[in-house]
Amino acid sequence: MHDSLQVLLSQEQIAKKVEQLGRELSHEYQGKEPLMVCILKGAVVFFADLIRCITIPVKIDFMAVSSYGKATKTSGVVQILKDLDSSIEGRHLVIVEDIIDTGLTLNYLLENLKSRRPASLKICVLLDKIECRQVEVIPDYQGFVIPDEFVVGYGLDCADKYRNLRDVCILSRP
Ligand code: PRP
């Protein structure tokens, strides 16, 4: 039996939203040269599209985190596998994520990054599973609120598969 994929958000819907987010960020960060931080790996596709919809100068950096798999994820313990390349003190940071689910990953990241004294720290997320939240994390920029379904595509994976799909799809396994 094969996995079944049902389109939740089409590439056209996503592109329109990403353009809108890019416009908002360009307006709000005028003159601030924000540092856009991509949280690997899931956010990479969204990030690449988003930064090209921003019309003001930005800088970019990457972080990779591991949440020790789903079982221990509820502990909220996140391990930094790749850290930022340089100091963020006094910089305007925008964390770019593909999805917020429990909120544990971002909650940890926010605390960690705040301690490095950036001038400001905001979250831009494409997909928000609000109903799954275990800790309060409110994104400053949000693409879509989605239901509690297993979604893949546009960077999101299932066991590292499907990241290259153009649409965000609901995955059902037989
Ligand atoms: C996903 C996503 C967030 C996190 C959100 O990453 O990119 O980092 O889960 O979940 P939470 O709100 O419940 O903490 P994942 O662990 O799947 O890694 P990946 O981005 O490398 O696919």
Q: What does the secondary structure layout of this molecule look like, with pairings?
A:
Blueprint: E1 4-9, H1 11-28, E2 35-40, H2 44-51, E3 59-66, H3 69-73, E4 79-82, E5 92-100, H4 104-114, E6 120-128, E7 141-145, E8 151-152, E9 168-172
Parallel strand pairs: 2-3, 2-5, 5-6, 6-7
Antiparallel strand pairs: 1-9, 3-4, 8-9
The structure holds 1-O-pyrophosphono-5-O-phosphono-alpha-D-ribofuranose (PRP).
Descriptive overview:
The chain is α/β, with parallel strands linked by helices. The protein has a single domain (12-148), classed as 3-Layer(aba) Sandwich (Rossmann fold), CATH 3.40.50.2020. Helices cover 24% and strands 31% of the residues. It has helices at 11-28, 44-51, 69-73, 104-114, and strands spanning 4-9, 35-40, 59-66, 79-82, 92-100, 120-128, 141-145, 151-152, 168-172. The strands form 2 sheets. Strands 4-3-2-5-6-7 form a 6-stranded mixed beta sheet, with helices on both faces. Strands 1-9-8 form a 3-stranded antiparallel beta sheet. It binds 1-O-pyrophosphono-5-O-phosphono-alpha-D-ribofuranose (PRP). 1-O-pyrophosphono-5-O-phosphono-alpha-D-ribofuranose is lined by residues 39-43, 67, 97-105, 157.
